[in-house]
Structures are given as C-alpha cells and as structure tokens.
Amino acid sequence: MTILVNGAPRPFAEVAAVRYRLRFVNASNARRYELRLDGPGESAFVQIGSDGGLLDAPVTHSTLRISPAERFDVVVDFGKYPVGSLVTLKNTAATGRPGQVMQFKVTSKTTDDSTVPAKLSTIEDLVPAGTVRRLVFSRNGDQWRINGRAFDPATPLLRPQFGAVEEWRVLSVERHPVHLHGTQFQVLGRGRGGPGAYDGGWKDTVELAPGSEIRLAVRFDAYRGRYIAHCHNLEHEDMAMMAAILVA
User: Fold this and answer.
1) Within the chain, what is the greatest distance between any pair of CA atoms?
2) Cα 39 to the chain's mean position, in Å?
3) Would the pLDDT of 42 be above 80?
4) Is residue 43 part of a domain?
5) Would residue 165 count as lying in a domain?
6) DSSP assignment, residue 124?
7) Band of the pLDDT at 143, cuts 50, 70, 90?
8) Phi (first) and psi of residue 195, to 5 degrees
9) Which of 127, 207, 231, 241 has the most CB atoms within 10 Å of its CB?
C-alpha cells in the first residue's frame, strides 16, 4: 500500500530554507496518521488552524495525530535545516510504505521575514445552556449503530433547538472519527479532563479513542432543517453508522 499526496505516490517538494504554510487533510477512508518530520535539524509543526479556521493562538507539536476528515493548518520552518537536507514526512502509526508519506528537499537559502503571530483570531466560547445529550457509537455483530439504532433518514435521532448551545457526550468502545455536517463545535474535554492537544479551535471532526468519552459544545444555527452526524470511517459510514438530526 502506498500513501498518495495530492494524488501522487511518494512525492517530493523542493523548498527554500524559509517558513511554509501547509494544509493537511486526512482523505483516507479509515487510516489515522501520526505525522512527524524526520530530518537533520529540529522538527516541529506550528499549528495555526483547525477544521473550521484559525486557532486563537499557535500551538507547537512534534507529531500531528490526524483522523479521517480532520484538517490542520501548520507552519513548518525549513530554515532550521541546512541547504541540501532531505526532510521526510513520516507516518509513525505505520511501517513500510504507509509509514513514508512524502519528502521535502531544501534546495536554497533566501531571506525570510515572516513570523507567526502570537494572536491569530478571537474565538467565541460556546457555553452549554443546560441540555445534555448522550451519543453512543457501538457495534452489534457486523452492524454499526448510534444509540443502538440503524440509520433512518426519515426519523431524526436528535431534535436540537435552533441556536441553542448543547453539551454532547459521545462514547465508544471502538475508534471512530466523529463528524457533524453543517456546523462547527468546540471540544470541552475528554473523560474527566480538558481538551486534548489537537482539539483547539472550531472543529467538525474529532477522533473518539476506544473506550473513551468526549464532551462537545454544539450549536446548530446555519439553518432550520436536517443535518447529519456520522462516523467518517467510510466503511462504518457505509454500514449506516449515521444519525439524522432535525433542527427546528
């Protein structure tokens, strides 16, 4: 198996020894990635954006964990590598070809007056106003379910109020990338703790680890009508791990 980047197998990009802004999206059907830069100098991703736009402030990661449909905007400073360096973007969650994503070749040195601002944007804090919902992603034999129910597009599983901020507690015994259509949410915490290292900003997809619970602040205010929640593992989605939502 070979990973494709922009449709190309095992590609490389020639870069100057300056900062680059990169946009990562996990378009795999089910594979999660743990991306790391392997080169002769210091390796880091400075995250500046998430699924729904800029973070309020940059966050530095040595590794990016990204589940299907998640997006990350990052800045990589190739000025930390000598000209002539080969920097490999690896997936440490796999070995062999799936562990090799792409390569950057640092080919020249030039002036770089760019900076990453300490303040990127102002994000409204969503505060739940009383309503708490519980979603359980589960499997019954070879059937994937949400709250024990098969997907029925004509029968809403949830009926949130338009414009209201709700707390959703999402649980699973398997690993699922949970995705909402038509809205963005904020991660309040995981288990009894706060948000994880990759949970900042506006999200529409978040990884639910096996045997875990994640708490979300959710508001539907784009329109009144039907929305969809589902697992973004395409095999699970195809097996009807979806839920219809009616907002009135």
Assistant:
1) 60
2) 25
3) no
4) yes
5) yes
6) P
7) confident
8) -60, 155
9) 231
Residue type, 29: N
CB 199 within 8 A of CB 172: no
Q: Which residues contact 97 (CB under 8 A, 6 or more apart)?
A: 1, 2, 3, 10
Would strands 205-208 and 212-219 be described as parallel, antiparallel, or unpaired? unpaired
CA distances to 47, 77, 106, 113 from 60, rounded to whole Å, are: 6, 12, 22, 20
Q: Bridge-partner residues for 33, per DSSP?
A: 66
Is residue 232 over pLDDT 90? yes
pLDDT tier at 128, thresholds 50, 70, 90: very high
Q: Which residues of 33-59 are buried (b: 16+ CB within 10 A; e: fewer)?
A: bebbbebeeebbbbbbbbbbebbebbb
Q: Using one digit for the tens of pLDDT, what is the confidence trace for 115-125?
A: 999 999 999 99
Residue 70: inside a domain, yes or no?
Answer: yes
Over residues 62-118, the pLDDT tens digits come to 999 999 999 999 999 999 999 999 999 999 999 988 899 999 999 999 999 999 999
CA 50, CA 74: separation in Å to the nearest integer?
A: 9
As given in the structure block, the two tokens for residue 93 are 């969650």
The CATH number of whichever domain residue 11 belongs to comes to: 2.60.40.420
**234 membership: H or E segment, kind and range:** helix 234-238
Query: Cα-atom radius of gyration of the chain, to the nearest Å?
Result: 20
CA of 65: how far to CAs of 104, 120, 132, 135, 148, in Å? 20, 22, 28, 23, 29
Strand partners, 137: 146, 172
* Overall domain count for the chain: 2
Boundaries of domain holding 168? 132-247
Element spanning 238, H or E:
helix 234-238
